[in-house]
Design a protein that fits this description.
Radius of gyration: 42 Å
Distance between the termini: 99 Å
Helix content: 25-40%
Structural class: alpha+beta
Number of helices: 18
Number of strands: 32
Length: 837
């Protein structure tokens, strides 16, 4: 035990693979009954527990509430949205709260009714160490040291299967690659709770995973026990039943026992419930004087009646008597399945009835924009598959307040969603958003598993290509001493009065989801193995019934959206979106289609009518279409430069026609303005784009009047007309190359002299050749520049023989429209202008 001076905290550590968990108390939240600050890596949670000093008068249930809450500050971020404060709990927080609650609740005494509140807050999250497992451990430790009556401690562990091997408490990064995500909670005596999602694993693989999880609980339980001992916790005593209560319980069994047994022989739930309520009313009337004299209370009578049902039903089942509805322990209730019970405007529907449990399933298919977006400390998510579960009061014949979705609804929906997720098609196979809604219209046992079965059938009816059908079944257990009986497809009363609620869902190949809640601590792995085997039999039976009704995937409803995908040049994305989204909004409004654009240029177009999609596609293609290499297009001169003219062609595409590619047959042109002017319509040959995405255009081999190609058009890219290629102009007139201009990079030579930025026709400061050179710093020959080499800029030698060409400033100007080749061009220019007119 490590002690420090600051607030005198007490610390216990737990080795967890390559890391450790630290449990600390005595430093934070010391006014609560129990508080534990737990650290795992850089994930930190605080768990606190408080309890009321006494139970409320007349309270007949244990008011435990567990609240798990995540803070965005734990990852150094603000909450998304307008309000920068965490508000109502997310579904993820509710599910984690339920996970912890289900493991803690069975360990409180049945006679303890004081209100207990457990709050777990995530203060730091590193993205690798699971906050839910750490929260469960911290909550158990906080309750254990609080002094509240508690048959703990309980520990939590996660098991994954990586490359065929079971791994306890993997990192969250590794968990993404796992075939299994299984959470186990338990005591030293056995497993209390299991929650899992799997990719069709066998019953043996699941049982082995549960065993591995329970095995990994041992060091955690030891650390919590050591912390409790160090704190010196003195546990409160739970209230004991009075002698008068026990006497009344014994007398009630003798007087009303046979009536209760007879009531349990009534098969239909409403009639059975009415009969049982009549017995309870009679017990109240018979004991009215005792209630008035306060020898007992109405709560005592209610408790005695519940215990009487519990004892008599369990004893009957252990003896091997028939169940309430006359079934044996393995028989599944009658099943009836209907598809298409709603019009096709609902994209898929099914009515699944099993005994007195019934679910009306609806399926809606949408586009990517319909996906559920959510933010949490685990990152931003976009759910393309949603399942919602509703449990109205009329489903059990009761008046129930209508309001916000409760924790039970969220939990049942998540269980069914876990069961179906492993068989959902990939986005490549079915690029839609899917929402499944389960409305429980009748309930007498296992409505969550009815949701799994009905949801699967409804999705297949909707045309969703599931990988395999999935069915679910709820198993029960009655155990007295060494005797026990496992029940398939349990009723509501068997769930309420039994020792186990064991829900298994899966395909023919294996299990996709498993949830188990145990009310006793003596469940052996032998019993669990038998329960899994019996559940498999029931699951396969239900699958047969489902396949009989919906043997294959149906067709999409005529009202379901269709989606088509096209690919555009990513550089064109901004053209499709437009300024402020104006273009894409206009396309959506005019076509009535939904459009989604990815960064790689993939565009998904969705609509309920094929014409909507077709219209949107045409609009997008008109914006993003690109010219086809090897064809002639009409264009408009948009600007003229010294080196050529920019032409807009094929809607909004632009390219350069180099000065050397304007005149017919590539004849030399001195001034671009001699041939072209802005706004002029011309015919251009498009030969493709260069490695920088620039369009390559030419007019030289295009008959301007007809647009027909002239002989030699296929040599445009080779630039043979300039005595060399575009990148290497050599030969008698000197070479030109960005890297090798008539010779080396820094030497451009030839009979007419070379041109190089750094060394033109000779050394850097000298331009040579028979016609003289040109150099930025020194214009060689007898007509050299005086401003940088002893003379002024405009004082150039008249000796043309030495230089072999005119000086830069003495050559004809552009406006003079004269050149050494002017006479030869007159005929070509006249023809060109005539054609362009």
């Amino acid at each position: 035990m490590v002690k420090t001076k600051l607030n005198n905290p007490m610390i216990e550590t737990i080795k967890m693979g390559s890391s450790e968990i630290k449990l600390e108390t005595g430093r934070v939240a010391k006014l609560s009954k129990g508080s534990v600050l737990a650290t795992w890596g850089e994930t930190v949670v605080l768990a606190t527990v408080v309890s009321a000093k006494e139970a409320k008068a007349g309270q007949d249930f244990f008011p435990l509430s567990v609240h798990y809450q995540e803070r965005f500050s734990s990852i150094g971020q603000f909450p998304k949205g307008y309000i920068k404060r965490e508000t109502k709990p997310t579904d993820g927080e509710v599910l984690k709260s339920r996970l912890i609650d289900r493991a803690l609740r069975p360990l409180f005494p049945s006679t303890y009714f004081n209100e207990v509140q457990v709050i777990i807050t995530v203060y730091s999250f590193d993205g690798e160490h699971a906050s839910d497992i750490l929260a469960g451990i911290a909550a158990s430790a906080a309750v254990s040291i609080s002094g509240i009556p508690f048959a703990g401690p309980v520990a939590f562990s996660r098991v994954a299967q990586l490359e065929g091997k079971l791994v306890s408490n993997p990192s969250l990064s590794d968990l993404k690659e796992s075939d299994l995500d299984l959470v186990v909670a338990g005591t030293k005596d056995g497993v209390l709770m299991v929650e899992s999602e799997a990719k069709s694993l066998t019953e043996k693989q699941m049982l082995d995973a549960v065993k591995e999880g329970h095995k990994s609980l041992s060091p955690i339980l030891k650390a919590i026990t050591a912390l409790k001992k160090a704190v010196g916790t003195v546990e409160e005593k739970a209230p004991e039943l009075s002698k008068s209560f026990l006497d009344l319980e014994k007398a009630s069994e003798k007087k009303y026992g046979k009536s209760v047994i007879e009531a349990f022989k009534i098969e239909t739930k409403p009639e059975r419930s009415e009969k049982l309520q009549g017995i309870l009313k009679l017990m109240m009337e018979d004991n009215a004087s005792k209630i008035e004299s306060e020898e007992c209370s109405k709560k005592d009578i209610d408790t005695i009646f519940d215990k009487l049902q519990y004892k008599l039903l369990r004893a009957s089942l252990i003896k091997g008597d028939a169940r309430i509805d006359k079934r044996d322990s393995k028989t599944i209730r009658p099943i009836e399945i209907e598809t298409g019970v709603l019009p096709s405007r609902v994209h898929g529907s099914a009515l699944f009835t099993r005994g007195e449990t019934q679910s009306l399933m609806s399926v809606v298919i949408g586009t990517e924009q319909d996906a559920q977006k959510a933010d949490s400390i685990y990152g931003n998510t976009q759910e393309r598959f949603m399942l919602q579960y509703n449990f109205p009061g009329f489903s059990v014949g009761e008046v129930k307040r209508v309001g916000a979705v409760g924790r039970r609804e969220i939990g049942h929906a998540k269980l069914a969603m876990r069961a179906l997720t492993p068989v959902m098609p990939s986005l490549e196979e079915f690029d839609y958003t899917i929402k499944v809604i389960s409305d429980i219209t009748q309930s007498n046992g296992s409505s969550s598993m009815a949701t799994v079965c009905g949801g699967c059938v409804a999705m297949m009816h909707a045309g969703i290509p599931l990988k395999s059908p999935v069915a679910g079944i709820a198993m029960g257990l009655i155990k007295e001493g060494e005797d026990y009986v496992i029940l398939s497809d349990i009723l509501g009363d068997e769930d309420h009065l039994g020792d186990m609620d064991f829900k298994v869902a899966g395909t023919k190949e294996g299990i996709t989801a498993l949830q188990m809640d145990i009310k006793i601590t003596s469940l052996t792995f032998e019993i669990m193995e038998k329960a899994l085997a019996q559940a498999q039999e029931g699951r396969l039976h239900i699958l047969e019934k489902m396949i009989e009704v919906q043997p294959s995937v149906g067709k999409l409803s005529e009202y379901a959206p269709r989606t088509e995908t096209i690919k555009i040049n990513p550089l064109k994305i901004r053209d499709v979106i437009g300024k402020g989204g104006a273009v894409i909004q206009k396309i959506s409004a005019e076509s009535q289609a939904t459009i989604n654009i990815e960064d790689d240029g993939t565009i998904s177009i969705s609509g309920t009518n094929p014409d909507y999609i077709s219209s949107a596609k045409e609009m997008i293609k008109a914006i993003t279409a690109e010219a086809e290499a090897g064809k002639v297009y009409e264009g408009t001169v948009v600007s003229i430069k010294d080196f050529g003219a920019f032409i807009r062609f094929f809607e909004a595409q632009e390219g350069l026609v180099h000065i050397s590619n304007i005149l017919p047959n590539g004849e030399h042109l001195v001034n671009v303005e001699d041939a072209l002017e802005e706004g002029q319509k011309v015919k251009v040959y498009f030969s493709g784009v260069d490695n920088k995405g620039r369009s390559k255009l030419s007019m030289s081999y295009v008959e301007q009047s007809s647009g027909e190609l002239l002989p030699g058009y296929d040599k445009v890219d080779e630039r043979k007309e300039r005595s060399g290629g575009r990148d290497n102009r050599g030969g008698s007139r000197g070479g030109y190359n960005r890297d090798n201009r008539g010779g080396s990079r820094d030497n451009r030579g030839g009979s007419r002299g070379g041109y190089n930025r750094d060394n033109r026709g000779g050394s850097r400061d000298s331009r040579g050749g028979s016609r003289g050179g040109y150099n930025r710093d020194d214009r060689g020959g007898s007509r050299g520049r005086d401003d940088r080499n002893g003379g002024r800029r405009d004082n150039r030698s008249d000796d043309r023989n030495d230089r072999g060409s005119q000086s830069r400033d003495s050559r004809p100007t552009r406006n003079s429209k004269l050149s050494r080749t002017q006479p030869a061009q007159d005929g070509f220019l006249k023809k060109l202008k005539k054609a362009l007119k």
